[in-house]
C-alpha cells in the first residue's frame, strides 16, 4: 500500500505541473544499476608506475603489453578469475593509441559489468579503467547465487521507497518555497519519478504473483536455465502499456508457454553464445539472452557476484540491455536503454554529386537563415563513394538480381551507405519501403518548404515531406563526415552499411525517420553495438501553427546522432551499456548539447539555448542557455544535487555547460576557426594543413590549430580514453590526458582552470552515490600546483 501511495502522490504532483511546461513529450525509459565504488580510472603515469608496471619497449605489441598489464593487475587472483580481450579493441590510426577492451570471466562465464579499458602507446600504458570484481569468487553456479539472499527483497524495496520518498519530499519543498517551477524541472521530475515508481510498483507489488508461480513449479539446479520467468518480470517493468502489464499478470502461464527458446552456436572461438526467446509480449523482435555474473553491493560494503540473465530487448520505443537475477523473484539489477586502409573499390559508373535545397551546415534552424542549394560533400576519407552509393550485397532493400560484375548500386533517393532517411508516419519499426523523395537522374533534391497556418497543420507538415527528408538526410551525412574526420571511424564503431574493408562491423547505417508518428515534441536515438543499425526518430512539434518540424533544427539532429558517437566510443564499439544512468548517462546527453552548440557557434560570441525554434520557446528546453556568464547559467558540479536535476537531461546540462566553458577558454587561447570541417583530402589522399592543422611532423597526429576545433578533437579523443560508466571526474581526466597525448600537455592549466571554474577542480568530491542517481557533491575550485 505504501508503494501505491507514493506512486499516486508522484503522479498527482507531476500531473499538476504538466500544464506549466512546454509540451515536450518523453517516452518511458529505464536506466539504473549498481554503483561500483571499487571501480578505478588512472590517467596519471605515476599512478600506473606505482602499481609496479613499467613501460615496455616502444615497438612492443600493444596487445601483449595489455596482457602483461592485466596479469600484473590481477596478481595472485589470476587463478580464480580470467579475462578475454574483446574483438572490438583497435589501434586508432589518427592518434597511434591502442584501445584495448577487456571483459572479466569467472567459471567460463562473463562478469557483465567487469570491464577494463587500457590505452597504450609506444609500449606505455597511458591510462586504464577497471571495474573488475576483486572479491571472493563463488565456488560454482548454483541456486545459492541468489540475489535475494545477498540483498533481501524487503531491504531492496525499502531502499527504493526511501530514495523515492526523499526525491518526492525535495520536490514538494521546492514547490512550497514557491520557487518558479521551470518547464525543465517538471520534465526532469517526470523523467526520473515516472520510471522509478513503475519499477517500484512492478518489483515490490507484482513479485508476489511471480513468486507464487515459481513455487508451483520448483526449480532444480538444472532448471536455472529457464530464463522466461525472469524476462516476463522485466517486461512488466519495461512496458509503457498498462494493458500489457495486466495481460502478463492475468495470463502468466499462457505467456510462459508461448515463449519459445532457441540457441545459436558460434564457430568462432570466444564469441558470446546467445539464446533467442520468441513471442515475448511487447517486444518487436526475438529477445537475445545469455547467462552472466553481475556485481552487487551488499549491506556490509562488500561486493558479491550474482548469477543473472542478460537480455537485449527491442521494443517500439526502447532497446534495452538488462540484467535480471536468475532466481525468483527475478529483480532487475541493471538496465540500460540503447534508445550510441585497404584498397577501396571504385564505382563502375561515376556518379555526379547530388545537390540539396536545405538549411546549410551551420544554419541551426529556419530562424537563422534561408535555404540554399548545397552540393553533396564528396569527402574521399569519410564517404569514399559519396552519400548515395552502397554495395548491392550490403543493401537490405535491394530485392532484384545483382548485375554481374557490378559491386555498387547508385540510388536516386535519400538512401545511401551512411544514412537511410524516410518518413515514418505510422511510427512503426518498418523503414525499407517507407516513402523517400526521388531525384531521378538529375540528382537534384529541390523541394518546396513554405508551411502556412492551417486548420489541418498535420496535412501541411506531410505535404512538405520531400523537403523534410532531404534536410534530415543532408544533416545526418554532414555529421557522419565531420565526426569521421575527428576520429569516429570504422574501427571506432561508426555508422556505415559498408566499411570499405577498413575494420569494424558493417551493416549499421543510421535509420533516420522523419516526422515519426510515435510521438510529438521530442527526438531519440537508439544505439545497439557496432554492426547493428542505429535508429533516429525525429518528431513534429505542435508548439506552433504551422507545426514545427524537428528535422529542420540541426541542433536536435546533431544531439541525437551524438548519442551514437558517445555510446560507441565509451567502453568500445561492442559495449553499448556504458552510458546508462547517473553521471555517465547525463554526460551522454551533455556531449550532444555541447557539440550541437559548438557546430552552430560563430566567432562573434553568443549564448545559445537548445531546441528554442522547435519548442517555440526563446529560452529553449533546458533550464538555462549555454553561457559564460554565471548569472545566466549558474551550473556547477554541485548543481547536480538540486531538486529537478535527477534526470539525465538535467545532469547533461551541467556537463555541457562545463564543456562550453572549457571550449571558450581554448578559443581565448588559440582563436576561432570559421569552420569545424577539416580541409578535404587531396587526390593523393593527404590532408592539407590549410591553416586548420599544425604542419605534420613524421607520424604525429593531426593537431587542430584553433580553440573550437581543438575542443571538439579533445572531447572526442577523451571519449575513447575514458572508462565504461565514467564519472564527471573520469571524463575530465580523460580530456586532460587527450591533450597530453595530442599537444604534449600545452593546455593542461587552461583545461584545469576551466573545469575548476565550474566546481570540478582537484578538490571536488562526491559521497553516497546510489543506483538511482543520488549522492552529495562538493564543489572544488582548486587546480594543480603547477597552475597556481
Automatic annotation (TrEMBL):
Zn(2+) binds at residues 341, 559, 563, 589. Its cofactor is Zn(2+). Coiled coil: none annotated. It holds the Pfam family Peptidase_M36. One of its GO terms (molecular function) is metalloendopeptidase activity. Residues 1-19 form the signal peptide. It is found in: Secreted. Its EC number is 3.4.24.-. Belongs to the peptidase M36 family. This is Extracellular metalloproteinase. The lineage of its organism: Eukaryota, Fungi, Dikarya, Basidiomycota, Agaricomycotina.
Amino acid at each position: 500500500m505504501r508503494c501505491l501511495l507514493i506512486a499516486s502522490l508522484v503522479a498527482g504532483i507531476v500531473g499538476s505541473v504538466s500544464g506549466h511546461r512546454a509540451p515536450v513529450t518523453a517516452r518511458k525509459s529505464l536506466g539504473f544499476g549498481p554503483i561500483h565504488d571499487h571501480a578505478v580510472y588512472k590517467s596519471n603515469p605515476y599512478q600506473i608506475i606505482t602499481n609496479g608496471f613499467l613501460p615496455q619497449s616502444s615497438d612492443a605489441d600493444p596487445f601483449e603489453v595489455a596482457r602483461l598489464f592485466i596479469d600484473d593487475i590481477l596478481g595472485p587472483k589470476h587463478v580464480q578469475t580470467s579475462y578475454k580481450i574483446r574483438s572490438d579493441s583497435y589501434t586508432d590510426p589518427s592518434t597511434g593509441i591502442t584501445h584495448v577492451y577487456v571483459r572479466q570471466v569467472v567459471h567460463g562465464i562473463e562478469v557483465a559489468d567487469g570491464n577494463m579499458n587500457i590505452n597504450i602507446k609506444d609500449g606505455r600504458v597511458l591510462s586504464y579503467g577497471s571495474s573488475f570484481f576483486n572479491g571472493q569468487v563463488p565456488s560454482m553456479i548454483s541456486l545459492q547465487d541468489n540475489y535475494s539472499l545477498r540483498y533481501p527483497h524487503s531491504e531492496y524495496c525499502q531502499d527504493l521507497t526511501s530514495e523515492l520518498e526523499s526525491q518526492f519530499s525535495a520536490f514538494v519543498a521546492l514547490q512550497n518555497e514557491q520557487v518558479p517551477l521551470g518547464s525543465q524541472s517538471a520534465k526532469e521530475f517526470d523523467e526520473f519519478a515516472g520510471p522509478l515508481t513503475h519499477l517500484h510498483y512492478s518489483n515490490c507489488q507484482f513479485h508476489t504473483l511471480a513468486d507464487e508461480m515459481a513455487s508451483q513449479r520448483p526449480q532444480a539446479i538444472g532448471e536455472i536455465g529457464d530464463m522466461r520467468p525472469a524476462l516476463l518480470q522485466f517486461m512488466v517493468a519495461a512496458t509503457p502499456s498498462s494493458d500489457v502489464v495486466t495481460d502478463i499478470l492475468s495470463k502468466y502461464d499462457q505467456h510462459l508457454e508461448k515463449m519459445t527458446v532457441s540457441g545459436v552456436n558460434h564457430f568462432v572461438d570466444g564469441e558470446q553464445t546467445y539464446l533467442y526467446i520468441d513471442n515475448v509480449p511487447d517486444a518487436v523482435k526475438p529477445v537475445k539472452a545469455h547467462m552472466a555474473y553481475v556485481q552487487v553491493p551488499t549491506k556490509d560494503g562488500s561486493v558479491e557476484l550474482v548469477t543473472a540473465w542478460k537480455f537485449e530487448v527491442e521494443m517500439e520505443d526502447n532497446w534495452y540491455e538488462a540484467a535480471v537475477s536468475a532466481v525468483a523473484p527475478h529483480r532487475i539489477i541493471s538496465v540500460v536503454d540503447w534508445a550510441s586502409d585497404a584498397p577501396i573499390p571504385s564505382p563502375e559508373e561515376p556518379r555526379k554529386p547530388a545537390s540539396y535545397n536545405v538549411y546549410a551546415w551551420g544554419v541551426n534552424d529556419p530562424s537563422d537563415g534561408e535555404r540554399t542549394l548545397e552540393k553533396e560533400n564528396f569527402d574521399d576519407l569519410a564517404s569514399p563513394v559519396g552519400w548515395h552509393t552502397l554495395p548491392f550485397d550490403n543493401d537490405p532493400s535491394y530485392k532484384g538480381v545483382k548485375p554481374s560484375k557490378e559491386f555498387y548500386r547508385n540510388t536516386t533517393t535519400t538512401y545511401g551507405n551512411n544514412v537511410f532517411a524516410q518518413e515514418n508516419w505510422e511510427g512503426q519499426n518498418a523503414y525499407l519501403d517507407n516513402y523517400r523523395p526521388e531525384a531521378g537522374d538529375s540528382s537534384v533534391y529541390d523541394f518546396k518548404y513554405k508551411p502556412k497556418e492551417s486548420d489541418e497543420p498535420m496535412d501541411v507538415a506531410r505535404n512538405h515531406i520531400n523537403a523534410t527528408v532531404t534536410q534530415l538526410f543532408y544533416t545526418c551525412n554532414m555529421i557522419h563526415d565531420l565526426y569521421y574526420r575527428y576520429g569516429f571511424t570504422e574501427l571506432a564503431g561508426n555508422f556505415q552499411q559498408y566499411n570499405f574493408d577498413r575494420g569494424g562491423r558493417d551493416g549499421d547505417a543510421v535509420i533516420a525517420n522523419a516526422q515519426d508518428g510515435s510521438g510529438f515534441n521530442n527526438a531519440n536515438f537508439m544505439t545497439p553495438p557496432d554492426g547493428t543499425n542505429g535508429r533516429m526518430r525525429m518528431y513534429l512539434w505542435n508548439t506552433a501553427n504551422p507545426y514545427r518540424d524537428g528535422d529542420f533544427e540541426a541542433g536536435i539532429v546533431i544531439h541525437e546522432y551524438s548519442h551514437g558517437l558517445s555510446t560507441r566510443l565509451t567502453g568500445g564499439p561492442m559495449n553499448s551499456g556504458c552510458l546508462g544512468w547517473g553521471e555517465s548517462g547525463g554526460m551522454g546527453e551533455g556531449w550532444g548539447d555541447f557539440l550541437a552548440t559548438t557546430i552552430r557557434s560563430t566567432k562573434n560570441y553568443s549564448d545559445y539555448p537548445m531546441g528554442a525554434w522547435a519548442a517555440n520557446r526563446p529560452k529553449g528546453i533546458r533550464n538555462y542557455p549555454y553561457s559564460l556568464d554565471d548569472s545566466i547559467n549558474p551550473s556547477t558540479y554541485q548543481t547536480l544535487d538540486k531538486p529537478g536535476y535527477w534526470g539525465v537531461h538535467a545532469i547533461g546540462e551541467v556537463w555541457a555547460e562545463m564543456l562550453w566553458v572549457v571550449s571558450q577558454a581554448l578559443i581565448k587561447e588559440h582563436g576561432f576557426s570559421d569552420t569545424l570541417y577539416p580541409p578535404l583530402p587531396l587526390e593523393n589522399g593527404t590532408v592539407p594543413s590549410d591553416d586548420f592543422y599544425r604542419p605534420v611532423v613524421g607520424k604525429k597526429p593531426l593537431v587542430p590549430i584553433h580553440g573550437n576545433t581543438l575542443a571538439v578533437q579533445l572531447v572526442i579523443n577523451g571519449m575513447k580514453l575514458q572508462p565504461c560508466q565514467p564519472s564527471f571526474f573520469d571524463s575530465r581526466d580523460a580530456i586532460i590526458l587527450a591533450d597530453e597525448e595530442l599537444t604534449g600537455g600545452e593546455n593542461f592549466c587552461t583545461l584545469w582552470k576551466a573545469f575548476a571554474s565550474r566546481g570540478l577542480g582537484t578538490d571536488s568530491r562526491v559521497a553516497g552515490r546510489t543506483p538511482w542517481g543520488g549522492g552529495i557533491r562538493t564543489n572544488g575550485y582548486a587546480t594543480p600546483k603547477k597552475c597556481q
